[in-house]
Specification:
Outer Surface Protein A, domain 3
Length: about 180
């Protein structure tokens, strides 16, 4: 059996969990999340804990078992604590600022880059070279951070671009240094 899938999930006092028509609803102090449950997986609530079980030992069912347990755990953690990702911008004249529901970035292109903020995500820019993305859905927070990073990923020669905080960019030596 899956080591992750068989662990029960504790439901905190502040969180309300409900299962209806193969859909799990999680509501907490920070908001509400829903997710559909595949037909091979059964989810039960007993004595303040959530148990995830699978129908058979097929490879796909085993894969979904641990995945669904992790997704439900992330939903519960999201509505209680929330998730954040931090990005930093490296480059001369590179900066970002929030304008209403749009992240406006100057990244050395001939035009400013405007990134519309999706529903359920909050973006703040405490410094012009720092972007903080937060929300209750772990998957959406990571996807938005990845899409912002993909606008100008860090390049290996000077290190300019948008990177995650703490990300190591391996630098290459230039053509002039190889002589």
């Amino acid at each position: 059996m899956s080591r992750i899938g068989r662990k029960p999930i504790d439901i905190p006092d502040k969180v309300k969990v409900e299962i209806r028509d193969a859909v799990i609803f999680v509501e907490g102090p920070k908001g509400k999340l829903t997710r559909s449950i595949p037909p091979q997986i059964s989810v039960e609530i007993k004595e303040g804990k959530i148990f995830v079980k699978r129908a058979s030992d097929l490879k796909q069912d085993r894969s979904l078992h641990g995945l669904m347990r992790s997704l439900i755990f992330n939903m519960i953690r999201g509505v209680t604590e929330g998730y954040t990702k931090e990005l930093e911008i490296v480059g001369v004249g590179f900066r970002a600022q929030m304008q209403a529901k749009t992240l406006n970035m100057q990244l050395g292109f001939t035009h400013p880059v405007n990134f519309p903020v999706p529903e359920g995500i909050q973006i703040t820019t405490p410094k012009p070279t720092q972007i903080i993305i937060s929300g209750i859905d772990k998957e959406l927070v990571g996807q938005v951070a990845s899409r912002i990073r993909d606008i100008y990923p860090p390049e290996p020669y000077k290190g300019k671009g948008i990177r995650y905080v703490g990300e190591y960019v391996r630098k290459k030596i230039g053509k002039a240094a190889t002589k």
